[in-house]
Amino acid sequence: MKYKKLAISLLVILLAASVAGASGFETGANRLSRPGGQKLAPALIDWQQANSNGFGDPLELEVSALEAFNGYLYAGTYNLVSPGPVPVFDGTRIYRSPDGVTWTPVTTPGFANPHDSAAPAILDFVVFGTRLYASTGRGNAAQIWRASNGVSWAPMVAAGFGDENIHDIAALAVYNSMIYAGASSQVNGARLYSSASGDSNTWNPVTAPAATMAGAGVTGFATFGGALYAAVDSEAPVQIWRTSGGAWEVVVSNGFGDTNTTLTGGMAEFGGYLYVGAGNTVNGAKLFRTNGTGFSPVSASFTADTNNTQVEMVSVFETYLYVSVKNTATGLEVWRTSDLVTWEQANLDGFGDSNNTSTNRSHASANFLNRFYVGTSNVAAGGELWRTVSLAPTDILLTNNTVNENSPVNTIIGALSAASPDPGSTFTFSLACAVAGADDASFNILGSNLRTSTIFNREAKSIYNICIRVTDQGLLTFDENFVITVNNVNEAPTGCSLSNNTVDEKQPVNTVVGALSATDPDAGSTFTFSLACAVAGADDASFNILGSNLRTSSVFNFATKSTYNICIRVMDQGGLTYDKNYAITVNVNQTSTLIYLPVVIR
Prior knowledge:
Elements: H1 2-20, E1 32-33, E2 39-41, E3 47-49, E4 60-69, E5 72-79, E6 94-97, E7 104-105, E8 121-128, E9 131-137, E10 144-147, E11 154-157, E12 166-175, E13 178-185, E14 189-195, E15 204-206, E16 217-224, E17 227-233, E18 239-243, E19 249-252, E20 261-270, E21 273-280, E22 284-290, E23 295-297, E24 308-317, E25 320-327, E26 333-337, E27 344-345, E28 356-358, E29 365-368, E30 371-375, E31 377-378, E32 385-388, E33 395-398, E34 402-404, E35 412-419, E36 427-430, E37 443-446, E38 449-452, E39 463-472, E40 477-487, E41 495-498, E42 502-504, E43 512-519, E44 527-530, E45 543-546, E46 549-552, E47 563-572, E48 577-587
Parallel strand pairs: 34-40, 42-48
Antiparallel strand pairs: 1-2, 2-3, 3-32, 4-5, 5-6, 6-7, 8-9, 9-10, 10-11, 12-13, 13-14, 14-15, 16-17, 17-18, 18-19, 20-21, 21-22, 22-23, 24-25, 25-26, 26-27, 28-31, 29-30, 30-32, 33-35, 35-38, 36-39, 37-38, 39-40, 41-43, 43-46, 44-47, 45-46, 47-48
């Protein structure tokens, strides 16, 4: 069968690479090493290897499936072991990681099946309900396994749905509350199955819309425009099927108009179109798209390279459509577009190693912790897993950097935002810089708002120096210093003084009693004085004010009244006031009169 031929050829390549010492990992062009052995492949965007080759086993030839589930990233592999006349599959393994770089196996090889019955590869994952499902293939009757905790796996489909000729269950999908499986029978061609629960013994065959030749298989699913699409590899050539919940129909039956198009790749919706990857035996890698009424070819530079044989991955990450292109000469290429017109290569060929030749369509790509992951096939050194390198934020913006004095605690000063080279980044803000600001304690941050933690007095201090840290979802940080200025706010006078509060009786009207002055927190304030308090003094009418002088409005007589109660108001230039009561005392002013009596001398 073709799977044993594949295994033999892979073994030959593996042995040859071992003899030559050509792992391709340490000596790949433009590869950089980090301490600890991590590899970087700088390109248009930086990529970082997220696993050791083959997760430490060079016979794990491919990272063939990826899926995020319950806080972990799961990776399935394709495993070949035991050199000999007839290679033996040790069986696939599933690994998981909480951070995308630290990996732990959660299954034994081949789910602990004997070598001659073990499933060689995980071909796809899907989350259905509260469980993670995994399908297998590439030798022996295909299976579907599931786990609710990611660790305890149980078979839901064994022995190819009862057909030992079904060696691949290449695709899984969830649609209309059903789980679908796409399969390939060596005798009966492409097959579809579905289940409402995913439990064992509940999977039913779905009537295919067209006959397919032996060896044809469903390779991928995608939803678009409310319908479920299925891609079918076929030498007949390729087909695209579709259902909106009822019967399936054929929407592409002729290899997109070219009978040499026999391979399909991944499918994804982006920018109002459904994109489908394909491979043409004559013209190489192809990409097609539809708005729901017909498919047309996409023009891109990667389709012109004769070494590019198939568009395999078609995935969306952040604001880009990514595709991977199989290339056995220089290594797989990853391309992306954001505007559906301009394409740019996003990686070095093969991530710097020509032995990284391909990906398992879109099944070996995933978005986890805001990074994009791509698994590769590498028969020389073991499958590799690459992820985009998050870049730290580059700027912090504050909408306002002033605050009025005397504002209450938790007054919002301004809104914070950040800039980052990574589209779709999320941010948290804090007053936790590597070098703290001198006045950080006077402020706090709630969400994205910078707020006060004290009541400011400009006259005491007008400038505050703080440092704000932004942290992105990948825990990368950027610190920036800010100067917060306290605005001067007009404050009411706080005191009024009278230089003298006594007056002699019998003085003429407009006699100056004393000079008035005021105190105010605001330096440079100007004042006006009046007898116009909110609560008037009882004797205000007996006085008047000219400028800053309190004067009499009557001629006082101590014998009649010796104390006068008045209230003086001081008003600043901003109209704020302060009232103060005064008692004005009248002084006795009686001059002695000498009486001269005539003196009679006798």
